[in-house]
């Protein structure tokens, strides 16, 4: 069997707000073991942002203020090889070096995936998936612009703060968007080239048929003339 890694990325600010709303309703990741290099992180390496069973009802400010919040740069962390930076042990290397290694790893892994899509480009995502794997969905994807994240009204200062908290995800998303559109354009050009090749083949077949029919018609005309000459004699 052939196995392929695929993923869907989302605008970092929208994704962050969506996760906050999800947590606000009582969602947790307690079942996630965060295993890296064969072990889960210690409570010192990965402290909790809340006490109790969940973080339901937390405000956006509380969500942003927790320095251990795994919502920060989640997409980079989940796409990168954490073992390169000592997993969740922040003392292995300087923060700046750690961030660069994580971002480079996430970009490289994304580039090597057979397919990835973007939430903000549903139709193009569907097109790329279908062309990549030669499969067709029953129904076309729908671009929903009204989501839980879009219903959250934030001011410019909060927007900038969220972007700062997710600065690695912001850079990854810019890279992903550029790569995604390159792949889309490549597939479209390939499709147009294939369509043009088929049209050329069809024209060749049509010309060959027309030439064959003309040849038969000329032969029939010659035969008819010779037959008439014989009768005239």
From TrEMBL:
Keywords: Glycoprotein, Membrane, Signal-anchor, Transferase, Transmembrane, Transmembrane helix. Its EC number is 2.8.2.-. It comes from the Eukaryota. Residues 191-233 are annotated as: Disordered. It catalyses: alpha-D-glucosaminyl-[heparan sulfate](n) + 3'-phosphoadenylyl sulfate = 6-sulfo-alpha-D-glucosaminyl-[heparan sulfate](n) + adenosine 3',5'-bisphosphate + H(+). The keyword Transmembrane applies. It is an enzyme of class 2 (transferase). It is found in: Membrane. It is a single-pass type II membrane protein. One of its GO terms (molecular function) is heparan sulfate 6-sulfotransferase activity. Residues 195-211 have a biased composition (Basic residues). InterPro entries: Heparan_SO4-6-sulfoTrfase, P-loop_NTPase, Sulfotransferase. Its main location: membrane. GO terms for cellular component: membrane. Pfam families: Sulfotransfer_2. Belongs to the sulfotransferase 6 family. PANTHER family: HEPARAN SULFATE 6-O-SULFOTRANSFERASE 3 (PTHR12812), HEPARAN-SULFATE 6-O-SULFOTRANSFERASE 2 (PTHR12812:SF6). 6-O-sulfation enzyme which catalyzes the transfer of sulfate from 3'-phosphoadenosine 5'-phosphosulfate (PAPS) to position 6 of the N-sulfoglucosamine residue (GlcNS) of heparan sulfate. This is Heparan-sulfate 6-O-sulfotransferase. It comes from Gopherus agassizii (Agassiz's desert tortoise). The lineage of its organism: Eukaryota, Metazoa, Chordata, Craniata, Vertebrata.
